[in-house]
Records
---
Amino acid sequence: MTGSTDTTRRSIAESVAGFPFDDRQDFDDATRGFVARATERQVRAEDGRVVWDLDAYSFLDGDVPDTANPSLWRQGQLLIKDGLFEVVPGIYQLRGFDLSVMTVVEAETGVIVIDPLISKETAAAAFALYREHRGDRPVRAMIYTHSHIDHFGGVKGVISDEDVRSGGVQVIAPAGFMDAAVSENVYAGTAMARRAGYMYGAALPKGPEGQIGSGLGQTTSTGEPTLIAPTVDVTTTGEELVLDGVRIVFQVTPGTEAPAEMNFFFPDLRALCMAENTSHTMHNILTIRGAQVRDAHAWAHYLTETLHLFGDATDVVFASHHWPTWGHDRAIEFIATQRDMYLYLHDQTLRLMNRGYTGSEIAEMIETPPALTEAWHTHGYYGSVSHNVKAVYQRYMGWYDANPANLWAHPPVEAARRYTAALGGTDAVVALARQAFDDGDYRWAMELCKHAVFTDDQHAAARELLADTMEQVGFGAENGTWRNAFLAGAFELRNGVFGTPSVVHPEDFALALSPSQIFDAIAVRIDGPRAWHEHLRIGWRFTEPSESHVMELRNGVLIHHPVADLTGVGEVQVTLTLDRAALVGIVTQRLDLAAALADGTVAIDGDPNVLLTLVGLADSVDPAFPIVTP
């Protein structure tokens, strides 16, 4: 099916009635300070692949089609304003080169770079545009505002490991950065990356009936993410650093938009960087790609603290996405309104929760106050009232809604078979779903088709009707990630699984990890049932970094801990002496172990078969696991 139905068009019209489309302030702000656009409009990887296309969304310059929500279309028009922009003299932003924004602060002898995008290719292209128009200034410091990959993944497109090892570049991040980055991109990286393919729609065709953005940015680049570990941790609010002559005062905000995050203020420029704690959209309390549930209460109160710390001296607010807000009064109101939004969702969810309502019920009950609805930057282009309310509920109450009937429900396939049988078989379920679709009850049509597909995923009519239904829901969504998710589901039902468009390269990430973090990454790959009856003890002696560890596999669990010396720790079956790079090579299977033993890269004392047994117990991952089919 192509095009929107009458029901979808009516739903869209009703949803945007009364929106302040005549307010053009955001368009003025999104183009203010424009310096130049890149003449090369496609960013390519070394193998020639296009990993970012600056013109891919030029269709958004046209009129709103009936297959898109006008509010989301408006957001997309703002997000395609790409190029180099001056925030204030001395602070510049590169926008439109990736999901996120790179900021460059000019210092005494060089520059400070803030948040180098997702991929090294897009970061290099963006920084090249800066240098073309502002000069070839050396990088003196790199700041990661927080632990999400779109704020550090492109680091090696701007600086190198050698730049950092030599002491020429400091890398500054909030305390806890590495633990949080590892948690998302290594431990749960495969599942999150696959789900992110739905959330950001990077594999979808771009156009009026396809992907038109994600609300926070257009989509994710598909180049190579990289990582260089921080050299400086910011641990306390009020901490001040002077980087190449530039004074910066920090505010740590853990548990807000990321587990490790920080805002910071440039007192001599009266400019405030809000990381991703404020954006020109309602953000996520829990992203639909999956993450740790964020603390909406703490988030709001940190924004109040921001106003008290820096509000009186602030003339411009900028962040790691979107465009800045200029003027003292406007900047303060922007932060305060963002604060009110998160606190309203939190407090009203708790109020209704304590009256006995569940998360799914509260999500249908809460409406935002008129003053919030009238502010474009509180609209749910990225987060939504619906899934944010459920996230607040989940943070306090967990997945269980206290109804014992839901405590031990059947998993999806078994539930689907029983529902389908009870309703008279797959054909009968599809017929009921077709009637619901024709009646414009898309949510019920999806529910019925979901059971039909999970009963028989080869039932062509069920797959096509579910795809048609998801497509209509996507067309009507104001939320960019919802649109992408529904259209991605429709795409895979019709065309097959597209997998994971953007994959983290394990070797580069692992080289930035400590041995303990690498061992934890191995532990979550151990196939527990196959390892039940194995008992292994391995000693690890590292030459770089200089440390030793004991590892033990028992009861299907891999345990490890550092020791001062391997002597006196009990019997180990094998001891390996190596450096961290060799460990990474073993883990990623890019090191020829026989060759490494022969040339002395790895030394083994004991039974080498113990290591082979451990490696053999590591389970594989599937970056193309099914989502809308069983």
Note: The mean pLDDT is 95.
---
Amino acid sequence: MISLRDKLKNLPDNPGVYIMRDEYGSIIYIGKAINLKNRVRQYFQSLKNQHPKVAAMVERIADFEYIITDSEIEALILECNLIKKHRPKYNVMLKDDKQYPYIKITVREDYPRLLVVREIKKDGSRYFGPYTDVGAVNMTIDLVKGLFPIRDCSKNIGRIMGKERPCLNYHIKKCIAPCRGDVSKEQYRELIDSIIMMLEGKQEEVLKQLENKMQMAAENLDFEKAAEIRDKINSLKKIAEKQKVISSAQMEQDIIALAINEASSCIQVFFVRGGKLLGREHFIIEDINLSDSKEVLSSFIKQFYVSDKIIPREVVLQEEIDEINIIERWLSDKRGGRVRIVVPQRGEKQKLIEMVSKNAEDTLRLLLEKQKSDTDRTMGACMELKDILGLDEAPMRIEAFDISHLQGVLNVGSMIVFEKGKPEYRNYRRFRIKWAEGANDYESMREIIFRRFTHGIKERNELMAEEKDLELGKFSVFPDLIMLDGGVGQINEVLPALRELNVSIPVCGIVKDDRHRTRGLIYNGSELEIPINSNAFRLITNIQDEAHRFAINYHKSLRSKTAIESALDEIPGIGAARKKLLIKHFGSLKNIKKATLEELCEVKGINNKVAETIYNFFKS
């Protein structure tokens, strides 16, 4: 194997991407360089003057590789794609790469349409956005279509023109119905041009055009049309009033600022189009590993714009970033036109940056407050439980069990899991009671506990023999605390079962008051009073409610399934396969009973004769 020293000697002078790996072969950092030799060697010089993050990373580098590219822009694109794919530990990572909705106008069609899309394609259509709220997009489209009655269908207008009657939208004046054949492309294009101007923020121009048309209609004594245009003008004015003008620059701008602390950062983006605030979004970047604000901002921009997004003509930043020229060229290539990255020092843009920066600081502050509140509510509750029960350690994993049945019929059990005070849904399990008979909650509880830990011991032994992680098993991870929905009776049944299996885990019962509400815990034979306003009490209540909900839902699903199967079993010619087809098609026994003969005949795999038998069975 070639040593790091030899690899460093043979590094090329070309631009490219370098990939750092640790002793296990995992990728821990990906970077790009104009000159691979100079850049990569810098990491392995004296660590005294290195950034703390770089020093920590270099200590873990066991190997590296590189990919030569033809240009620095190619290296930047490759770097972005590799970071997105591998998500290395020491790169600043944007975790929530959101796909925003855009308004698309299919301008290449003879009679264009408005669509809401989340993917931008190079198909010649016009795209407007990004919008950060789907509700706002739908509202905008509804308003636009209310003012300008364009088509909503996806029909081939050229093929059906004059051959079909117009749909309801025409009769309620929501569409001018080009399908009738009496609407020219030019007339329709006027509506589309007005919509485009509106979405570009040029409402004033649209208003002037509408006012001229209203004046002409009034002069021609067409007062009905003039009144209709007047109503559109009033609606458009209301829309314009709602849109906040924050910039006199009539261009596309993304204004980006960040707030940063020792653990995480919040980046705020304002999307300004035509001087108006179209929307805003914030991004939380955690585990920034002592990165400075320039690195966080630079990494964000590369990861944010690597996906298919509308690149604005101008990106306004809070501070200078490294590689600003190459990033500017990359964005220009993606946009297909000049993109400027500006860092204003005074004037209107500087005031905009200050506003976005304050929003970022406020969002980060609220996030930290929420994190503290969540920690008090979850981990804090676990710490309170530790003190209440007198445990050595806080119970990080709690498993709770409940029983559900209907007068001893269809007995089921539930196992729910809370980790660090939060429900861990993927670890929930449910049991059909096999051994206990009748309405015997004590014996049923003993059975599910015995089966759960029997499975767990078996899985643990198998995984340990194969030197595999215990997390791979369904039952191999054991809890720190067991909670039972019940009192002393359930506990006295469960403790001997655990001793029989040599499992030593604290067990407590959750008891309820006369109104069936959580009252407290029974532990070591005593009932413990827990303050009702404490985080521990809220956690116990949540656990009891969740265990009960999960058990009840399982029992209901079995009852429903049994009811359907028992009713269908009585019908001649209906076996297991046809039962499955009917249930899949109709969803419930109620729907099967209500089905007409024609609807039953539509079920694939059910012939006419069998459909008639089913129909007559339920109608007789």
Note: The mean pLDDT is 83.
---
Amino acid sequence: MSKTIFFIFALLFSLSALAEKRLHYLKQIPVLHEGRIKPFDTYARVNLKEYLHKDSLPGMSASLWLFEVLFDQREAYNRKIFKINNPDVQKILNLKPAKGHTYNFIEVFSALGKVEEQINPLLSLEPEELTPEQKQLTTLFNNVYKYLNLSRSFSMFLPELEITHNELAQLLALPTGQKLSYFEINQSKWRLRNYLKNSNMQDQELLREASKIIQFFKFMEEDKFANFFKIIPSREIPEGESFSDNPWFAAWDMDFSKPADVLSLTRWHDLYRSYKGKDSTFMGASESILNHALKVSDGALSARKLWWEVQYNQFKLFNFAFVLYLIGFLVSMGFVITEKKALRIISIILVATGAFAHLINLSIRCYLLSRPPVSNLYESIIFVALIGVLFSLAMEKFRFQYSTVIGSLLGCILLMVSFGYEKDGDNLGMLVAVLDTNFWLAVHVITISIGYGCALVTSAMAHLFLYQKAFKNSLGDQQFKKQIHYCSLFSLFFVIIGTMLGGIWADQSWGRFWGWDPKENGALLICLWLLWAVHGKLAGVLKDTSYMVLISLTSVIVILAWFGVNLLSVGLHSYGFTENIAFNILVFVMAEILIIGFLLLKLMTKNRLQSY
């Protein structure tokens, strides 16, 4: 089995290595973005997601798309990559409905230009002061500006000006009869300056040509605003500072009078020319840029991490795990219906393989960030999903025959939810200082997330118990009851320990163990709920049905504590805030209440509900 899994992953690696081989080194070139040095490929995906809400185009990777934006504006400006779903926004911009609700840069830029006076006052307002349409307009406006900024990052390389005066061309040591770029002409700028300084200004035609060059310089230097694409690292690192703490530079930040800066730009110019010429030097040029950045970093940059991050982006093992969980759920449901043992074995293999892919991708993420996956809601969801699946598979040891049904369903649902937060959470961003330096935070969040995952599995088991009792004329298997009770205790243990560790973190970070923060109250609520259920069961106050109802409702308590407190937008746990989840939470809570209420009603009509 292990050899088969290894072969599958090896095959995936080999197939991906053949695809877009020409971009192999380009994808790894480091870029400074949002406080973290990330490969070109990640930077491209993050930007494309902002515009299109996807990290690739049909038949085109994000890296190739970004390279086109940087070096081939004629194609890039006509490519439809701005998604505008809201018909009201389309109406405001006077845009006709388009296939896929996508528009190209020229269409959107022109439309925004006509309503710019309406948008400018909105840019200074807080998000909560804006209507949904206004939020989307301001976001679109900022995205178009960023896109324009990116597209002009290397405008200095674009061949725009032809020198027709032979004497001036000889003076500047430049060719005639072909268009030259700002970068190429600028290297002879000192020759022109010396000539104009020492010339008697007799040749009017030459002076007119020289004046044209000066005007060209002024025109091109207006692109110095294009400073988003930070790709040239600082060479001098002050003692005591890290490599990433020092400023990185965009191409237009370079001093053209310094040979070292010109050499850095020359490497990118060579890459541009090889791309335009479609010759075999493209990989060599991109490799040269990558090696230069690694050399300048003096070991601060890891070539291995850059490579692994590109693979992480490419394989999308969370998607692969989701597919396996989904198939595993369908097969496990086939086992429940037919009770064929072969289907149960296949479902276990599918879910276990999905969990392996899930674990591998999460481990790669931890390796890349050098920290546990606890920084934001997206990471929390994918981690809890893995815990839930692994905990369900562990129940196989106790002969719980529905373990794959619960594990695969939980994995599917949570990964599906995580995809909704992927745009903001999957960019491998840096943590704020208080979250990135405290050992107790990592231990606290990991521990309580394990409690979340186990509690959700336990809740699903209790749902299944109520279903069996209501529809299968069964009072419930005693072994099944014990399993649910032990799982409740296991969940309670991790939630309590995780909450206490959170207090230790709060004491070290903020100087108080407990402050009645919404997130703290949420964790306490889970503890109290499970304590109430468990103590009621042990004291004999709660009978089986009542106990199972409380355990079933644990899923509601966990969701409210995990997601719901973020709706308050207050407290110190700002790393977990998100938007637009109130409706989803309401739907989930109402669905759970209706499902459990229906099962109770079914039990009551069959006179099987015991006294409390």
Note: The first strand starts at residue 30 and ends at 33.
---
Amino acid sequence: MGFAFINYAMLAGLVAVGLPVIAHLLSKRKFDVVQWGAMQFLELGKKTRRRIRLQDWLLLLLRMLLVALVALALARPWGQGGIFATLSDGVSRDVVFVIDSSYSTGWEGKAITPHAASIDWIHAALEDLNPGDTAALIDARTRTRPLIVPATTDFGRVREQLNDLPAPSGTSDLSFAITEAMQILSTSSNVSREVIILTDGQALPWHLEDQARWERIEDLRQQPSIPPKVYAIDVAGQRGDSTNFSVDRVELSRNVTVPDFPIRLRATVRQSGGDNIQRNVFLEIDGQRLPAKATEVALLPNGEALVEFEHRFDAVGSYIMSVSLDEDNLPADNTASAVVTVADGIPVLLIDGDPQLDPLKQETFFLKSAFAATGNAPWIRADVIKADELGTVQLADYRVVFLCNVPSITQPDADRLVQFAETGGGVVIAPGDLVNGQAWNNLTLTENVPLLPLDFVKIEQEDTTAAEESVTVDHQTLQVPWLERFRKERGIDFAETRFSRWWGLTPRVAAANAELAEKISDNTVSIPPAQTLAKLSNEATLLASRDWGDGKIVQFAVPLDADWSTLPARNDYLSFVHELVFALTATGPRRNVNVSDPLLLPLPPNTKAADWVVSGPTGDSLPLAEVRLADAPTLSYPDADIAGTYYFHLATDIPESGEPFVVDFDRSESDVSQLDDAQWAAITDSGTIVRVEEMTNITDQLKQENSRTELWWLLLFGVFGLLVIEVAMTRQMVLGGHAALDVEPAAA
């Protein structure tokens, strides 16, 4: 049997008990007594004086008790167990339902999926709630979605949200969802407060290794005067055979390509559990399997295999490329997709730092020739300008800008390139003997943040007197996807390129420019990290890059002509410069994103933002906002909080006719093994969470836990009764006066 209060702050009202005492003392103030007439011969008897004094004390105590009962009633006391349980059948409840909607809850190995079982259970639980009870609903996915907040007494709204829940997708974070639920309950007022988690019993969503999370959960639970009860319900039961096959995320050689140019994609196929087995793997384009591209992989128990496909598109447009498996009990991870954009030639700008009358001596000659080598319909359309013309060109008309042996540029021109990169453009700096390294090092992205990924130090030269081999490309350093094809085992001769000279490239903090290094050190400026993409055989940096906004800045140590290397003479040169452009064009507003990343698309000409909608996994068509990127109108959808495929399309068209986006997710839950006894113990031993074994007895268990009875109404009855007694006593004393007094004559 227990007793407590809901609102302890209201107990401060007990200090008002002293008010009747203060009033009584004030009424006893002494006054000057004037003797007059025959009154001096009258005197109250001792018995009468005692009775009057007793009535005064009783009335004072009655009034003090009356004030105390009002203060206690406002504090809303409740009792649990014992005689309190007999006073009421139950109490009002605030319930937050947390439904695990991660893709593992779509397991189809039984008659009903765990996700569908969770929905049915909540529908049944709503039937057991009474008028005055409230319910809230949280959809736990990669991004936790509070669907009904604050808690409501309109259970019809809760049912509508349950019926409209999208299919399971992504992963979930149940520990975070519990935190969200407790914050909802912190504003509730009913005596019984409960968080009910419906899950399929996987360990991953609980984050048991993160002790700080669980300490915060327990702290939040203990803060209210009535700690909420947290129940975990495993709706999946025993799965039986939990073998599962899955496809990891697709990795593309490029996101943007041109017609008839090969694009490669690869993915890892995994088996969770199982035995030695052969599985068919398929390539799909816009949901259609290509039988000619099917392959077969051998999988060991808990094993994996890498698959790779190559494809050429014959028309411009946006396509969804997928790697898929035949269906199993968990269909959500049998397919992995990515969007590829096929463009009709990519516009690039070549800036020549040493214009010559002889085309063969121009810094951009080999680049422009390589881009034009694909015939009448070049994959890349290149324009050439002089360095001093940079300020007159509209950079928004291009996707990539090459600065070829440009001695230096002004900071205003650098600012234009920075804005170009921020909005998705690629900037390539290919230095030669004319480059003023100090001037380039002084250029900035923002205040005190250098434009270049690495500092130009000085021009190095091959030691022709040494007996060592010539300086070439260290092909082992070619690790990023677009460069991997040029490794010795896959390329033709890129790795055999010989270099006679190169610029030394050094990180800013270790640069020879001590003044700038000290400036950065004094201001503790955070420099965006530079990534080394390729090195020479003598370990000097050949190629580096830095992400900036939605774009990228790439820095070579050599020019892209034949002055310092044999690169233009390599068979791989044409493929190399094309792959570089395609890799940089893949930056900018992306079509393949993660949950909660914004979806952005340049507003098509001759249309308005109001003409467009977005359709996603929920099946709803929602309006799009218009934002401006690089002063260009752009369609934006910031709330892609559910993994799946989205389409930007005209409101009058079907979704599949529009521009696709893929919102991808982590596939950690493909291992559907359930929590073992030790893991369940880690969740429940602290007492924060109570595990419920059977769904059928959950209601009875909740009633048993909530046999608490609010007592404020009893106290209000007491207040009413005391008021009646106080009025009766006061009336008797006033009306009776001294009629019944025992008056004795005064002594002579």
Note: Residues 738-744 have pLDDT under 50 and may be disordered.
